[in-house]
Amino acid sequence: MTSASGLTMPGQVRSVAVQDPSGPLYVTSYGANALETVVTMVHVRGSVSWHRSYPGTGRPQSRLSADGTLWVAYPQGTGRVLEGVLPDGSTDRTVVPECEAGEEIGAFVVLDDGFCIAWAGASPMLRRMQGIASTPPPPRVARYTREGQCLWSTPVTLGAVSHPGVMGMSRQTGWETRPLRPWVPEETSVDHWEPLLVSGDRAAASFTDAHGGLGRTFFLDLVSGAIVSATEPTPMGRKAIAGPGAFLIGSQGYGEFTTRRYDRSGSESDRWASHGAMLVNDRGTVCGPELENSLPSTSRFRQLAPDAVLIDGPPLSGYYTSSPAMDRAGTTVFWRDGTLLTVDADLTPCELYATDDSRNIMGRTLLLDDGLVVVPLDSEVVVFRTPLGPLAEGPWPCGDANLRGNPVVR
User: Fold this and answer.
1) How far is the C-alpha of 303 from the C-alpha of 204, rounded, in Å?
2) Alpha carbons 157 and 354: distance in angstroms, whole number
């Protein structure tokens, strides 16, 4: 029988991470306002060990490293810092990567020997508060040592973007609806979903038009920083690590509903007419809940098989969905439409817990020891006791990206 308990955080939860399946939980959330970041250590049974507050940028970020240090990004004056927090809540050390005025740590990951950062322009609100010029610096991706020394920095140019599904009308078109001509974005930001992934010697950094939703993923050599290749401009979607140097890049919107697999060379090797929060197990099987923008829902749980084949799982009601996790028996668990659902290896669904909860802000599902499932719902961290087995092994999200919230597979 599945039971649930919850613990309320100071504000909306942005990430939850654990060092190993026994806990405790490192919860990163907003504080009393959007410009405060709070980190809270919570035991899986619900008691709070400690919490720390930091100045925020409106987008709280943290990554848990393999050695148990939680790295938090926050502003310091006109610069940006990464601070390491030890399990007892004390500060390990602070790294200050060099940056330009108006630059923001859009996303970062912790490597064995340092950090990789996707830089973008800070939000207009922060730039105004700091008296910085309205034009933000161009985006870039950079790699640093553990001490913050820059090993390489690669500028990224989004270029002109367009898509056949982006329509508009004007006097020039006789007020007829036609596809918009390519345009150069006024401002570029990191993508909302999985903006920076590292697998083997490749990094996948995704940037978007801050106002239009079209973007590109750039594949970089992690050693040299050279851009290996880049996707064409598309509506951005969910992404995943698919194996050594390989990535799944999803696209949804403006008529797009696809997932593409890119290999180490940055070339497209597979494509499916589906998009969702996918996971990849240790046998390379890709499956997960679809996230189609339509209500009533037409989505299903899908398995993406070779040669563009889609294997139908059960239909899914609702839309808002947590990223899934999988146990070693091949059972996937996730939260959707007020229900904690599982889909087993034979694609048979089961409702473990159901409620009329309509909250639509959620993050990653974590599967811990003794069948404990953790799901953040808005400002609450909910822990379910379930009959699920231990967490599966695999590149995504069963590897480090699931438990530590650090999307790096080496």
Assistant:
1) 23
2) 46
